[in-house]
Design a protein that fits this description.
Blueprint lengths: L4 E5 L4 E5 L1 H4 L4 E2 L2 H4 L12 H4 L7 E3 L3 E4 L10 E10 L4 E6 L6 E4 L9 E4 L4 E7 L5 E12 L4 E2 L8 E7 L8 E5 L3 E7 L5 E6 L8 E2 L5 E3 L2 E7 L6 E6 L2
Parallel strand pairs: 1-5, 3-13
Antiparallel strand pairs: 1-2, 4-10, 5-10, 6-9, 6-11, 7-8, 7-10, 11-12, 11-13, 14-15, 15-19, 16-17, 16-20, 18-19
Length: 245
Amino acid sequence: MLMPRISYHADAQRLMIDLVQATNTLPQLLPLLASHPLDCFSAAAPWFNCLDPSRQGMAFSRRYGWDMAAMTDLPPPGQAIWIRKLDSTPGLAFFDYNDSRTPLTWNPCFGTEASTNALAWNGMMWHFAAAARPGTNTFRATFELFLLDTSTGQEVAGSSTGPFDLGWTNAPELRPTLELARQPGNQITISWVTNALRWHLLSSGSLDEGDWLPVPEPAEVINGKAAVHLDAPSVPQFWRLRYDP
């Protein structure tokens, strides 16, 4: 785990951060298809729709977290520690998760899905999850920690750690690639490698997440590939593969 170490210095009346451990190695956002190709998440888990290969299949990492230094001073009574995300690479999402006790949780945080960009932290060790579409790019997020006066709701002046960056690399999903070929008679053939087990072809007239429907035509094996023959559409059409457990 990569834990930025937080401490409060009473003499300076501010929070400070030790980033040595957290910046030596960047964690990788990894989709389940790459880490455990034959696995799937339980449909009852709150992260199922976000992370399962049959749904959004996002790449994710839970390696970053927050921890208080053992020898830290305590913040004054009436002041609470808050964590604020100042900026992040587009497409990077954050979640407050719990996978060890009931109820399981996967709650958007730090500006994800209209959540606030800041939250209170009680100083106990806490890991958050970062997630993004699989790929080969890198991501960055800028945070700061500060003290909040609990009686006024105002930030305590001069208490901030100042901005600091956390980074991630990203891994490709390894989803099979579709190939499209035109055929005589206003036909098309869509094919993919046959060793891609448990994949089924979907189609949609848009790229919206909820509009994809299974293609009813069955696939057959041609020249070592699974292939589906279709009438060429008269309007724009999209196709993709869905992983079915």
